[in-house]
């Protein structure tokens, strides 16, 4: 896989994570962000419980909505395929951690490394680096599948 292909996938994963972190996805949730829930549950986070003040929550949530990036549906579909497969779930978690854990690691007070990212998602360094290396071809494969199916939906 070329550097340009990896860069494209990194850009798309960034779009996906930005979309997940957007206020439109966190609308109705208080406290933990969707990105934090993604990492905590190592994949698909549970939905809202519904034990809220629905009318007030809905009014506040509507205020937070915004349009998604045009490429979001494609990468979101591809990442969902990875997250729902036992064979590729760790790859999706690893590439998500690579993008989310940037800057200073709170417990080492140094820059995040693959070792600290691995610890954050309960993997060994070897497991994390293998999962990260397999994430790119797995995402590329799923993006091709999504593109094929999208021709029949529109």
Describe this structure in words.
- The chain has 154 residues and is mostly helical.
- Helix content is 66%, strand content 0%.
- The protein has eight helices and no strands.
- The chain is globular, with a radius of gyration of 17 Å.
- Residues 26-31 have low confidence and may be disordered.
Q: Which segments are poorly predicted (pLDDT under 50) over 5 or more consecutive residues?
A: 26-31
Give the H and E element order: HHHHHHHH
Distance N to C terminus = 30 Å
Strand content: under 5%
Our count of helices gives: 8
The helical percent reads: 55-70%
Give average pLDDT, whole number: 82
Q: What can be said about the biggest beta sheet?
A: none
> What is the C-alpha radius of gyration, as a whole number of Å?
17 Å
Summing up helix and strand content along with how strands pair, one would put the structural category as mainly alpha
**Beta-strand segment tally:** 0
Shape: globular
